[in-house]
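Hi Q.,

Before the meeting this afternoon, I wanted you to have the carboxymethyl coenzyme *A prediction in hand. No need to reply - just skim if you have a minute. The sequence and ligand are here:
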Amino acid sequence: MSSAQFKFGENLFVLPVVSPTDGYMGIDVSRLRESAGLVTYDNGMANTAVCKSSITYVDGENGILCYRGYGIEDLVEHCSFVEVAYLLVHGKLPTKEELNQFSTYLNEHSMIHEDMQHFFTGFPPNSHPMAILSAMVTSLFSFYPHIMEGDANFDITAARLISKVRTIAAFSYKKSRGQPVVYPRHDLSYCANFLNMMFNSPVKNYEINHHVVKALNQLFILHADHEQNCSTTAVRLVASARGNLYAAISAGISALWGSLHGGANQAVIEMLQMIYDDCGDVPKYVELAKNKENRFRLMGFGHAVYKNYDPRAKIAKTLCDTLLSIINVNDPLLDIALKLEEVALKDDYFISRKLYPNVDFYTGILYRAMGVPTNMLTVMFAIGRLPGWIAQWKETAEQVDGKIIRPRQIYIGPSRSGFVPIDKRM
Ligand code: CMC
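Predicted structure with the ligand bound:
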């Protein structure tokens, strides 16, 4: 089927249909205003395909997530985060040589300009790390403007950003604790390096545990991309105006921070703590979430696309079971989370609305077990999401027929009226 028809008034309109490799076909409405004098209205763009993309595929009904055609389960089991980052940015899995080269770039570009360190002291000590991250990433353009000059090798640009964001995140943590920063080391892998920069200190040697490193790789892979979600749309929006990579990623970080999006992982931990402090009264909070007279929702539950168990949540839940027992962490919030899931999934309110745990429900507990503080949980999501954002920025920037993203609206304000001078206004 290559076209769709619809009738408006007495007129019949024919609209072309765009076919995907997988998923839903799309009705092309881009000429509808000219032909029928109509725009389409889609609150939240929940049923609108804003671009053609070959990066990530999500089948929300069946709980399927693939990056460049590879299932998330396989990538989590067999790959490192760096390998997946390469896959997303390049569109193919790296050979050993390509992976080595990419890892070398990550090492070579892991430092931030020393002058950028002064920025940290300008923030109040209790600043939210997402505010710092977003500001620092935009500032990177002042120090590394090469992307605008047509970088011959996008690998270096991608590696520079992926590596530096990790360093900025760890430095901001150290600064918030009033501790000296720990510089990146050439002999450590991407994730081990991050843990060392976060938790090593001159007075206490941090022992890198390979189980924790593996779990961190897996968590970052779970976050690495998720097609046209809110923050990725922010990245593509900036990219569509030919905005630079750093500005676009900074916009993505700001969007991710929201509590209905990536900020939910912080909100989940705060909610679980609140339930725990309230004698672990899970049913009370399930009832509260169902009551429409307040704005309380079960954080980490529900998803705009998944109307089935989020495959990332499934993997994170299993990871919780294994990692916490291996590293001997007994987190009472995990018990609350398990109970909450059990009660909610038996409740008709959640069953009828197809509300299941999403990626943020269990990942916060895993990061906590690694020692990451609650206000840094969304930063962890951002580090993981970076390769996806970079790939999405690149895809947008390279589209030869790319258009600036400029939606329409249904105007519901006052109609034009005569101007009232100030001395005649009531
Ligand atoms: N708790 C209670 N009720 C909920 C929840 C929830 N977590 N999520 C949705 N609902 C209800 C909602 O009130 C509505 O009920 P009704 O039909 O009676 O009006 C119905 O389910 C549909 O909700 P919606 O807001 O139209 O659904 P959506 O698909 O637009 O929203 C969501 C998706 C993720 C914003 C929403 O489920 C939510 O607020 N969840 C909690 C926040 C959260 O965990 N966010 C992280 C999402 S995963 C990370 C990411 O990729 O962003």
